[in-house]
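User: Is it possible to get a 3D structure for a protein together with its bound compound? The compound here is S-adenosylmethionine. I've pasted both below.
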Amino acid sequence: MVGKVYIVGAGPGDPELLTIKALKAIEEADVILYDRLVGDEIVEMLKRLGKELVYVGKNCGERGEYRQKEINELLKKLAEEGKVVVRLKGGDPFVFGRGGVEAEFLASHGIPFEVIPGVSSVNSVPASAGIPLTHPKLSSSILIVTGKDGVENWCESILNGTLVILMGRNNIKEICNNLIKAGRGPDTPIAVIENGTLKNQRVFFGTLKNIADIIEGENLNGPALIVVGEVVKVAKKINATNPKIFSSL
Ligand SMILES: C[S@@+](CC[C@H](N)C(=O)[O-])C[C@H]1O[C@@H](n2cnc3c(N)ncnc32)[C@H](O)[C@@H]1O
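Assistant: Yes, that's possible. Here is the predicted structure of the complex:
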């Protein structure tokens, strides 16, 4: 019998910022594969729980791609042995954490998996330093980039990067039209997620040119978040094993 892989976000390091859902998965786990950025106190806690631990963090000078292949194969092997595996990553596994790559790999091999979001450093670290990322009078947007790219690429983010839009449901038609006017392709993938993480979560997929029509008449009343960009396509690949995600692609 095949086991299951939980791809879990461990938060920014403080064990109290580990979620209850993450703790439940850890308790259920037979083996935990963890990264360098998982906080020391959290690793100590895992040791006290007597869990089998495997460190899979990248060491200095090690090639990321090669290491990733090894990790993917290890996840598959352990799940095929019938084990419950927790793949524990710093912050949130889908924010600069290769969680999406691992989910794609597991989905393509028919291995059951679940993603447990974590508290990302993106919002928690500035908050812990007293820096509000948005402020009614000072800033209405946040650009999240990797410092491994040049600044010139940051300026192009609106045309090529992932856009996450909060509070945009009622203006979605105008947003899409204006993004197309700004130079983003009309066929750019887009998703609207209503009541995210809740039992009544709904996800609508489309493109910049058709999403407004797709959600019209769907009576979206809950809080909704919009994601624009090529990464939306990953959801289609990993959906097959995730009944929670509804696809209109
Ligand atoms: C590979 S990214 C992983 C991000 C992670 N998935 C997340 O959602 O926070 C690693 C980078 O996240 C940032 N980071 C993660 N935890 C942090 C912390 N506790 N304090 C400051 N920066 C942190 C640093 O910039 C670090 O180099």
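Residues 64-80 form the longest helix (17 residues). The chain has a mean pLDDT of 93.
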